[in-house]
């Protein structure tokens, strides 16, 4: 007998649709299907049981990512002893059940149903975009439909109008069979509820919003409906244009920290479409508008296709061979060190590049540059997470899998906006909220998660920006003083001295919600209520984002969150934990790979002689025992004239870092700036060497997502300039006289595994075998560690930290009476270099300033007005959007467009422990204006000049020496 | 060294100090601050703040001053 214990994934083929979702029951039930005996978990549908036994029952409305619906009747079967022909999708198995899936009667029944469907369906299969990949066509073939006796002249929907409003997919209702898969995908998978079936009977039709075009509805263009559609009703425009793909490669999305797995569906080396991969453990076959659709940037005309050099930033770029560019860069670096000393150069690793590439850049800096001046963009996002979590629970990473949220009873979201910034995980959270989990949101803005359709009512603590620590202390105060602590956990898992010190501190009256109300602006009773809900939850899980870290007390807040989880015993099992939501695709990985100036890969401090000895042995050089400069320190040193050259791989510090004018001054002070990127980004405009980067589609490697999951990135097309990013770093290292000879990124991973205790069991072979691995992966955990800290912490016992609230120095006053906070939007990604070069811009063409109606009224501001926003460091102009998502006194914008200059206004104020900038709190004034700011006018001129300097170079000859230099 | 660079270092160390000062225990706070700086600051930054403390140091908070004094002492192995 076939035995299936199903809800896991082992043994299941992600390319097969099993018809209905798995049952999580542990009781097995034995059934016989067409004479094949199989035992499956109780609650499994007959359709799924048959699929597990390798028996295909025709189906149209069923899909294993949707609850059974039973509308198409195609999956009818006969069950011994039961009357009629029940739909196998809605019929659960029962002990001893004998099922027949094929016989004459069933064949006739299915053919009749199909005949009805086809009587109202165009017969244009040969010219239909779904031709070759159409479930309706397949099922028609399977049931042997040969004629349609009704004819095609009757009333029908064949002339229904196509909705082409969405840039990525078309909706052709003439081909719709009203199976509701799209509607259910929008509800169950995505959680947006943008689609409905409108009308009844023959009038039934799929409708977006209130019978609106898709673009005007609340549709977020995640594409779940397109994927669910069994016909070509909802179809990718890229497939309509190119035809069906002929092969596919499983790879990992290069957008946010969720790290969705995709099948890149190809035609030769042309990417036709990205289809989220059901076998991906982070996304289980779901995706968002960025990952699924916004890949056109990879072949955009703006791509840098050749290496270029110039002596000064006022000169035109010269296209040169790889050899010449690398030689030029190496000579400049060496000359700089000869003149200004070993510590006068440094580099920045990329949180968008692969682990292997990041590892190589920091190795280049430590081994070939001979100093520790390496940093990464995590400095400006999650460095406080590294510091705070390492200090308290011993590891600089989130504690759970994403799936863990499905066991959480209370979900606390602090300073994060998952439905925009981590959409696929946001959808999973919403699924859990629809199942009844409670939600607490701590955020100055009313985020969309609070408006989850059919979710339970959430508690929103709309605190003033910059008062997180006051809030977390107040919550902890309630937990401790109201006896909600998990004493057993604290006693067995935490350091007693530190716990006592923390407890004495937290019970002080000044930390009570009543005392903190004046600081946070949130009513004490609401804070008490939230604390009780978290404290009393069987499983309470905390998720947080940059609204926690990007503050002057970012690190303190991270420790405060860890305190809260330890005090309530919400660590070490599924459904709980402390979970940083990472911004970029490989922020976790870039931190893991030793990008920070003070630590080698695996968070091993450079000051530790034992650690250094291992790396020195492997690398054959001596490593500086002192930490190097962080990004802001590099800028300061550049302006001071002691830091003169920089290698930047795949980051755009000129746009993403705070106080743009300060960054520009620093970059202008450099004698040599080497930028490796796919586009002429803002930083590259200040560069002397421009090395073409490769997109995630053009290289092999791995990314590590927010749940520590190492996913493979697989090359599907050749790099535009012939070199993958790791090969460029390697060439530079060789030119500097430090030899590197890797043939493939897998060899780099082998080296990482050799030197990093949490990676010892990781290899490409194992990744191919398991699909993905969550580190730590070593002898103790050969298949990885989904849930951390189950028995103990890497530092033994957990360490409570005293988290004194210290107000930010960035305060409002009469001159700057408002607080600006910054964030992200669904359709755009980070600095927008990729998404701005796709149709995603249709959703967000410019950054706007959201302002509360009362602040707007006071200043006579209306929607669409030009607003001048000034802070202590700069001034920019944006269009107004009046919105009550923020509190009065708080304004909000995004930083996806360089010309917006959001970071011209943000200041140097930063986290005390890590120098992570305080993007979330800037005191500003806002007023109506009529023209762009001075900075913006300068930006436009400079941008235009730099584009001109690039143009003659682009006409240059093609580089052909990539193979030679490798 | 530029004035701005020094100003930033002073601001940074004072910020570390105030975030680790608990119930006025300056001695203990100075230990934490010194350890933090040893662990996270680059060699040049440490030297700059030591030089400043020895030459002027007026803008350093009491805890910062104590911490820098500890930094300047040779570390026990």
From TrEMBL, chain A:
<dbReference type="Pfam" id="PF10588">
    <property type="entry name" value="NADH-G_4Fe-4S_3"/>
</dbReference>
<keyword id="KW-0004">4Fe-4S</keyword>
<dbReference type="InterPro" id="IPR041924">
    <property type="entry name" value="Formate_Dh-H_N"/>
</dbReference>
<keyword id="KW-0001">2Fe-2S</keyword>
<keyword id="KW-0479">Metal-binding</keyword>
<dbReference type="Pfam" id="PF00384">
    <property type="entry name" value="Molybdopterin"/>
</dbReference>
<keyword id="KW-0411">Iron-sulfur</keyword>
<keyword id="KW-0677">Repeat</keyword>
<comment type="similarity">
    <text>In the C-terminal section; belongs to the prokaryotic molybdopterin-containing oxidoreductase family.</text>
</comment>
<dbReference type="InterPro" id="IPR006963">
    <property type="entry name" value="Mopterin_OxRdtase_4Fe-4S_dom"/>
</dbReference>
<dbReference type="InterPro" id="IPR006656">
    <property type="entry name" value="Mopterin_OxRdtase"/>
</dbReference>
<protein>
    <submittedName>
        <fullName>Formate dehydrogenase subunit alpha</fullName>
    </submittedName>
</protein>
<feature type="domain" description="4Fe-4S ferredoxin-type">
    <location>
        <begin position="211"/>
        <end position="239"/>
    </location>
</feature>
<dbReference type="InterPro" id="IPR017896">
    <property type="entry name" value="4Fe4S_Fe-S-bd"/>
</dbReference>
<dbReference type="InterPro" id="IPR050123">
    <property type="entry name" value="Prok_molybdopt-oxidoreductase"/>
</dbReference>
<keyword id="KW-0408">Iron</keyword>
<dbReference type="Pfam" id="PF13510">
    <property type="entry name" value="Fer2_4"/>
</dbReference>
<keyword id="KW-0560">Oxidoreductase</keyword>
<dbReference type="InterPro" id="IPR006655">
    <property type="entry name" value="Mopterin_OxRdtase_prok_CS"/>
</dbReference>
<feature type="domain" description="4Fe-4S Mo/W bis-MGD-type">
    <location>
        <begin position="246"/>
        <end position="302"/>
    </location>
</feature>
<dbReference type="Pfam" id="PF12838">
    <property type="entry name" value="Fer4_7"/>
</dbReference>
<dbReference type="GO" id="GO:0016020">
    <property type="term" value="C:membrane"/>
</dbReference>
TrEMBL record, chain B:
<dbReference type="Pfam" id="PF11390">
    <property type="entry name" value="FdsD"/>
</dbReference>
<protein>
    <recommendedName>
        <fullName>Formate dehydrogenase subunit delta</fullName>
    </recommendedName>
</protein>
<dbReference type="InterPro" id="IPR021074">
    <property type="entry name" value="Formate_DH_dsu"/>
</dbReference>
């Amino acid at each position: 007998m076939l035995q299936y214990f199903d809800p896991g994934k082992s043994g299941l083929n992600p390319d097969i649709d099993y018809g209905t979702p798995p049952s999580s029951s542990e009781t097995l039930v034995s059934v016989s299907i067409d004479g094949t005996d199989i035992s499956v978990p109780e609650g499994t549908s007959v359709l799924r049981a048959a699929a597990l036994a390798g028996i295909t029952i025709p189906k149209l409305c069923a899909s294993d990512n949707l609850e059974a619906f039973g509308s198409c009747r195609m999956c009818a079967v006969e069950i011994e002893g039961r009357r009629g022909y029940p739909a196998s999708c809605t019929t659960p198995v029962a002990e001893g059940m004998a099922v027949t899936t094929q016989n004459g009667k069933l064949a006739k029944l299915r053919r009749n149903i199909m005949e009805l469907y086809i009587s109202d369906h165009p017969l244009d299969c040969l010219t239909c975009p779904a031709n070759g990949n159409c479930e309706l066509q397949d099922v028609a073939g399977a049931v042997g439909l040969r004629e349609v006796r009704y004819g095609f002249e009757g009333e029908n929907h064949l002339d229904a109008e196509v909705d082409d409003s969405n840039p990525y997919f078309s909706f052709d209702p003439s081909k719709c069979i009203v199976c509701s898969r799209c509607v259910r995908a929008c509800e169950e998978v995505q959680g947006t509820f943008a689609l409905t079936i409108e009308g009844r009977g023959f009038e039934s039709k799929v409708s977006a919003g209130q019978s609106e075009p898709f673009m005007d509805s609340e549709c977020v263009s995640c594409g779940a409906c397109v994927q669910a559609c069994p016909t070509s009703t909802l179809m990718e425009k890229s497939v309509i244009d190119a035809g069906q793909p002929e092969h596919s490669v499983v790879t990992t999305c290069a957008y946010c920290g969720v790290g969705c797995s995709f099948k890149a569906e190809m035609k030769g080396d042309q990417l036709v479409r990205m289809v989220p991969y059901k076998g991906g453990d982070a996304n289980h076959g779901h995706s968002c508008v960025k990952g699924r659709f916004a890949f056109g940037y990879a072949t955009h005309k703006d791509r840098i296709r050749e290496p270029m050099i110039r002596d000064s930033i006022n000169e035109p770029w010269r296209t040169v061979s790889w050899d010449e560019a690398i030689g030029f860069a190496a000579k400049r670096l060496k000359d700089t060190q000869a003149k200004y000393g070993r510590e006068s150069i440094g580099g920045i690793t990329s949180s968008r590049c692969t682990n292997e590439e990041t590892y190589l850049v920091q190795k280049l800096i430590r081994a070939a540059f001979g100093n520790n001046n390496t940093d990464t963009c995590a400095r400006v996002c999650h460095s406080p997470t590294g510091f705070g979590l390492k200090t308290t629970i011993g590891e600089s990473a989130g504690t759970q899998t994403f799936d863990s949220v499905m066991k959480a009873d209370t979900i606390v979201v602090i300073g994060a906006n998952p439905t925009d910034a981590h959409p696929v995980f946001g959808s999973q959270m919403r699924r859990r909220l629809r199942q009844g989990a409670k939600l607490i949101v701590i955020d100055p803005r009313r985020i969309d998660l609070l408006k989850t359709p059919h979710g339970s009512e959430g508690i929103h603590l709309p605190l003033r920006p910059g008062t997180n620590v006051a809030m977390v202390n107040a919550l902890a105060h309630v937990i401790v003083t109201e006896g909600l602590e998990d004493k057993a956990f604290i006693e067995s898992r935490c350091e007693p001295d530190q716990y006592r010190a923390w407890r004495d501190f937290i019970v002080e009256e000044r930390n009570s919600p009543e005392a903190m109300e004046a600081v946070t602006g949130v009513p004490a009773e609401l804070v008490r209520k939230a604390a009780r809900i978290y404290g009393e939850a069987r499983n309470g899980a905390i998720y947080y984002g940059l609204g926690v870290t990007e503050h002057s007390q970012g690190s303190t807040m991270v420790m405060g969150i860890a305190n809260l989880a330890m005090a309530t015993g919400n660590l070490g099992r599924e459904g709980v934990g402390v979970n940083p939501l990472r911004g970029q695709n490989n922020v976790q990985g870039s931190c893991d790979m030793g990008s920070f100036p003070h630590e080698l890969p695996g968070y091993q401090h450079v000051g530790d002689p034992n650690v250094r000895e291992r790396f020195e042995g492997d690398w054959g050089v001596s490593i500086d025992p002192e930490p190097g400069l962080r990004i802001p320190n590099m800028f300061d040193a550049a302006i001071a004239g002691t830091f003169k050259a920089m290698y930047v791989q795949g980051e755009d510090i000129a746009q993403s870092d705070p106080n743009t004018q300060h960054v520009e001054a620093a970059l202008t002070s450099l004698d040599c700036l080497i930028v490796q990127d796919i586009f002429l980004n803002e930083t590259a405009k200040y560069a002397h060497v421009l090395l073409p980067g490769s997109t995630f589609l053009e290289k092999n490697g791995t990314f590590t997502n927010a749940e520590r999951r190492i996913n493979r990135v697989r090359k599907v097309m050749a790099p535009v300039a012939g070199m993958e990013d790791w090969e460029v770093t390697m060439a530079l290292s060789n030119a500097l006289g430090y030899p590197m000879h890797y043939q493939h990124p897998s060899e780099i991973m082998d080296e990482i595994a050799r030197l990093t205790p949490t990676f010892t069991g990781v290899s490409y072979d194992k990744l191919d075998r398991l699909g993905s691995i969550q580190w730590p992966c070593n002898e103790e955990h050969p298949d990885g560690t989904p849930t951390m800290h189950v028995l103990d912490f890497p530092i033994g016992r957990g360490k409570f930290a005293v988290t004194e609230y210290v107000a930010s120095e960035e305060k409002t006053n009469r001159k700057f009476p408002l607080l600006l906070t910054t964030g992200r939007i669904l359709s755009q990604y980070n600095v927008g270099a990729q998404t701005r070069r796709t149709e995603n811009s249709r959703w967000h063409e410019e950054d706007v300033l959201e302002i509360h109606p009362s602040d707007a009224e006071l200043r006579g501001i209306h929607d669409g007005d030009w607003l001048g926003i000034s802070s202590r460091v700069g001034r920019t102009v944006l269009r107004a959007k009046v919105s009550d998502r923020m509190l009065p006194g708080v304004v909000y914008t995004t930083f996806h467009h360089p010309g917006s200059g959001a970071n011209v206004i943000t200041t140097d104020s930063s986290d005390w422990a890590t120098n992570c900038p305080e993007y979330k709190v800037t005191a500003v004034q806002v007023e109506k204006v009529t023209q762009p700011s001075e900075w913006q006018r300068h930006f436009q001129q400079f941008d235009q000049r730099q584009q001109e300097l690039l143009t003659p170079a682009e006409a240059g000859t093609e580089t052909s020496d990539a193979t030679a230099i490798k | 060294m530029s004035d701005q660079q020094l100003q930033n270092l002073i601001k940074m160390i004072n910020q570390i100090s105030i975030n680790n000062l608990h119930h006025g225990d300056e001695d203990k706070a100075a230990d934490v601050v010194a350890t933090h700086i040893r662990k996270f600051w680059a060699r040049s930054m440490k030297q700059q703040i030591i030089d400043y403390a020895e030459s002027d140091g007026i803008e350093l908070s009491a805890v910062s001053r104590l911490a820098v004094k500890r930094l300047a002492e040779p570390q026990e192995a």
